[in-house]
From TrEMBL:
PANTHER family for the chain: ODORANT RECEPTOR, ODORANT RECEPTOR 19A-RELATED
Membrane topology, as annotated: Multi-pass membrane protein
Name the UniProt record assigns to this protein: Odorant receptor
InterPro entries found in the cross-reference section: 7tm6_olfct_rcpt (IPR004117)
Gene that this polypeptide is encoded by: Or23a
Organism: Drosophila pseudoobscura pseudoobscura (Fruit fly)
Length: 386
């Protein structure tokens, strides 16, 4: 890779744009509502009410827990997808800023760092892709190993599917399509934030390398001054990139943090106390893995980004500023003051996108887990297990 051949949008968000196209997000953003993808979105949107209408109405605790976790997940997924559809224009602006920053990559060290960043982004996107593919397989086909006529997940239908073959095929087809669409929505909703923050952190590290290397190689002072001015422009672009990223992911992440604590607690409870068959255990384990993947990477890169902006201030004094001109030192002072600002990403302007938040949600999940356990003990043993 050379500075004249920067990565394009398809390299960074290739899988995400493909998913948005399949889901009709671009048509929805352009207010073109009549398309084939709209049928998929309608099915996914109807799936959440079908789950909510049957909440806590099943005979076994396992079905009730599964229905509860799916109900809040489905509702959150529809809300997050709608928010991302509204912000797709900002995603395009974000990519333009990234392209301009990519054009500034030069030198062996920066190129090596840039290649590592691009490789990390591809691995991260593949991690989401393979994990959600595993969840899709478990969700779509685990019901085949059950005895009798059954559906992938317990939900409400306005007709009797247990005694009618036609109704059963209709209910099964509806759930299979809805599950596919919802997992695809989850993939794009959950993979975009960590990828965007990874890009921000990567370009912050590249700017640190760029600033700290000024003046160490033989060059004219005028060239060093010009490079410092360009770095000031890069710093402005980087802050703009962070602002765009915040605008896109802020509210979806607030929804995600709220849902995660309830979901992990309920899923762990079902796995520990009620999952008896191998198929149920595999489903709950894969579902739990997907829940952790929804929040841990984005919190990790949020923390990494915050640390990177903290080091940006020290990179200014890492350059060979002592032997430079007065004009250079004046510009360096301006850049030093600008880098004192340490932006912090907040979900919904309330919750930090940071590893401390992930730790807090895990604690909340454990509290919800114990709350369900205490309620179960007071209610007595489950009659279906006798």
């Amino acid at each position: 890779m050379t500075p004249k051949e920067p990565p394009t949008r398809s390299d960074y968000f290739r899988d995400q744009w493909r998913a948005w196209r399949v889901l009709g997000a671009l048509q929805l953003n352009a207010r073109r509502y009549w398309s084939g993808a709209m049928l998929l979105n309608i099915v996914v949107a109807l799936y959440a009410p079908a789950l909510l209408l049957s909440m806590f109405s099943f005979e076994t605790p396992l079905e009730n827990i599964t229905n509860f976790s799916l109900s809040i997940t489905s509702t959150a997924t529809v809300l997050k997808f709608g928010l991302y559809v509204l912000q797709l224009g900002r995603v395009g602006d974000l990519e333009k800023v990234i392209a301009r920053l990519d054009d500034r990559v030069e030198g062996a060290e920066q190129l090596r760092c840039h290649r590592q960043m691009a490789k990390k982004l591809r691995h991260l996107s593949n991690l989401f892709l393979y994990t959600y593919g595993f969840v899709l397989l478990n969700s779509e086909f685990s019901f085949l190993f059950r005895s009798g006529r059954s559906l992938p997940f317990p939900s409400w239908f306005p007709f009797d599917w247990k005694t009618s073959t036609v109704n059963y095929i209709g209910a099964l087809g509806f759930q299979l399509v809805a599950i596919f669409g919802q997992i695809l929505q989850n993939f794009v909703d959950d993979s975009f934030p960590p990828l965007a923050l990874c890009l921000c952190a990567g370009h912050c590290q590249l700017l640190i390398l760029r600033i700290s290397s000024i003046g160490h190689a033989p060059s004219e002072q005028e060239a060093n001054e010009a490079e410092l001015v360009e770095c000031i422009k890069d710093q402005k672009e980087l802050y703009g990139l962070l602002e765009l990223t915040r605008d896109v992911i802020s509210w979806p992440m607030l929804i995600q943090f709220f849902v995660m604590a309830l979901n992990i607690g309920a899923t762990m409870f079902g796995l520990v106390f009620f999952a008896d068959t191998m198929q149920d255990r595999m489903y709950f384990v894969s579902y739990l893995l997907a829940l952790v993947l929804q929040t841990y990477p984005v919190c990790y890169y949020g923390s990494l980004l915050e640390d990177g902006f903290g080091h940006l201030h020290y990179a200014v004094f890492g350059s060979n500023w002592v032997s430079q001109s007065r004009s250079y030192r004046a510009s360096m002072t301006i850049l030093g003051e600008r880098t004192k600002r340490h932006p912090r990403l907040l979900a919904g302007s309330l919750v930090p996108i940071h590893l401390s938040t992930f730790q807090g949600t895990c604690k909340a999940a454990y509290s919800f887990f114990t709350l369900i356990g205490n309620t179960r003990e007071r209610a007595g043993p489950d009659p279906s297990q006798n």
